[in-house]
Amino acid sequence: MRMNRPLSIFLAILMFIAGISWGCSHQAPQIEDRRTLSTVIRDASITSSVKLSLAFERGVKATDINVDTDRGTVTLNGEVGSEAERQLAVKVSEDVSGVRKVVNRIQVRS
């Protein structure tokens, strides 16, 4: 069965939100981590916003990129098809509100 792009994006977002909800209810932040609940929520919101921005960017295959956020620093991991796609993913991430820094660990497939 082939889904259209908006439906597949919607389902991906829904699955992501369900994952956050499940993860938040079953994992408490470590005490030595010293991140407040508001910081954890803010980071989750930034991660979600970056993922959405990447999903709606035509030149980036968002499913190939993993996004993690820690205190406003976004780390991108994964493999993409070209250097242009790698650079675009970083630029899109930098433009998201709340992002302080982007750590680019994306590799270009050879």
Structure in words:
The protein has 110 residues and is of the alpha+beta class. It has helices at 5-26, 37-56, 83-94; strands at residues 65-70, 73-80, 101-108. Strands 1-2-3 form a three-stranded mixed beta sheet. Helix 1 runs antiparallel to helix 2 (37-56).
Primary descriptors:
110 residues; 3 helices; three-stranded mixed sheet; alpha+beta; 20% strand
Computed structural class: alpha+beta
The value of Rg in angstroms is: 15 Å
Mean pLDDT: 84
Largest sheet geometry: 3 strands, mixed
Strand runs, count: 3
The string of secondary-structure elements, in order, is HHEEHE
Q: Could you give the distance between the termini?
A: 31 Å
Spatially, the strands of the biggest sheet line up as 1-2-3
Strand content: 15-25%
Helix content: 40-55%
Morphology call: globular
* Unreliable sequence segments: 21-26
Figure out the total of helices.
3
Outline the fold blueprint:
Blueprint: H1 5-26, H2 37-56, E1 65-70, E2 73-80, H3 83-94, E3 101-108
Parallel strand pairs: 2-3
Antiparallel strand pairs: 1-2
Helix pairs in contact: 1-2
Quick description:
With 110 residues, this protein is of the alpha+beta class.
